[in-house]
């Protein structure tokens, strides 16, 4: 197993928090993220893999 430095972990944590804040800023941005991830369709329905 490879060890990750605490500095890298802290940096990744900040990046994740920033992305979460951006994605959850509005309903539209959340849906856009979920569409890009393949979880929802553009019409707001779950894709086949998540039904």
Can you walk me through this structure?
Residues 1-11 have a biased composition (Basic residues). Residues 1-21 are annotated as: Disordered. The protein is mainly alpha-helical and 51 residues long. The chain has one domain (6-50). 55% of the residues lie in helices and 0% in strands. The protein is built from two helices and no strands. It has helices at 6-23, 27-36. The chain is elongated, with a radius of gyration of 15 Å. The model has no long low-confidence stretch (mean pLDDT 95).
Strands, count: 0
Query: How do the SSEs run, as a string of H and E?
Result: HH
For the record, the count of structural domains works out to 1
Radius of gyration: 15 Å
What share of the residues does DSSP label as strand, in percent?
A: under 5%
DSSP summary: helix tally: 2
First-last Cα distance: 36 Å
| Sheet having the most strands | none
Low-confidence sequence ranges: none
The overall average pLDDT, rounded, is: 95
SSE class? mainly alpha
Shape, principal axes of CA atoms: elongated
Helicity level: 40-55%
Region (Disordered): 1-21
Biased composition (Basic residues): 1-11
């Amino acid at each position: 197993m490879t060890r990750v430095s605490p500095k890298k972990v802290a940096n990744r944590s900040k990046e994740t928090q920033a992305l979460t804040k951006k994605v959850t800023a509005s309903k539209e941005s959340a849906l856009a993220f979920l569409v890009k991830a393949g979880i929802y369709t553009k019409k707001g329905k779950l894709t086949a893999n998540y039904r």
